[in-house]
Amino acid sequence: MEPSLQITLLMLSAFSGAAIGFIFSRLAEVLKRYYERVNLHYSALVRLENLCNEQMDSLNRVKFEITSMISSYENAREAGVIPMFMNRPHPVPFDESILIQLANLDLVNEIFAHKLSIIRINSDIEKVNIFSDDLKTALLQKTIGENQYLENLKNLVPKFSELKAHIDLRFGKTVKLCSMVRIRLRKEKPLFNRAIDAIRRTRREKGFEEMVLKEEKKLLQEIMEIGNQSQEEINTVKQMEQD
User: Fold this and answer.
1) What is the CB-side half-sphere exposure of residue 24 using CA atoms within 13 A?
2) Residues 83, 77: contact at Cβ < 8 Å?
3) How many domains does the chain have?
């Protein structure tokens, strides 16, 4: 073999080795980024499920506070005394950073709409709290009289009922959202072989709505069982106190 041909073959061999090495390094980088994105999406799903649970608990607490305020007002009026609200509803939590970490487009749209509803509820809660506090402060400082206080309070109480209705609606929507997330957590667990061999879905597959309905029923049943268990514990404590 001529020296020039031998040199050419060596150069081609070296170039081919470098090219193959470059291709594999780029492929490894792409797979690494994809797997990191899968993990980020799954972690966001875990956080979203926790957030939904927190929101359901928060919505129930807000509903309890509002119901107590309505009862306090009605009982005070029946007794002929001035109603004073000690309860104070707190805003419902929301974490916006979850939105940019999710890969499922349908789920992102659901959460964005959910976020807007939570913002509106929190705005209503803030307005109710401010108005209630201002009324109470004005009465205690004698800026307004009892009749004016009662008249303003009479106009405020219907707002409590409207807010309570919105909370009931949002609680149902939150249960559905949590059901969707739980299904995604089961179906999209990031195993390495899935990251390589499968393409992540970004749209709902056929039959997903039916699965959500089943998961909703299951979740509501779990909530009911927890509520019944808590009530039994409360009844047990009350019975012990009476004994």
Assistant:
1) 6
2) yes
3) 1
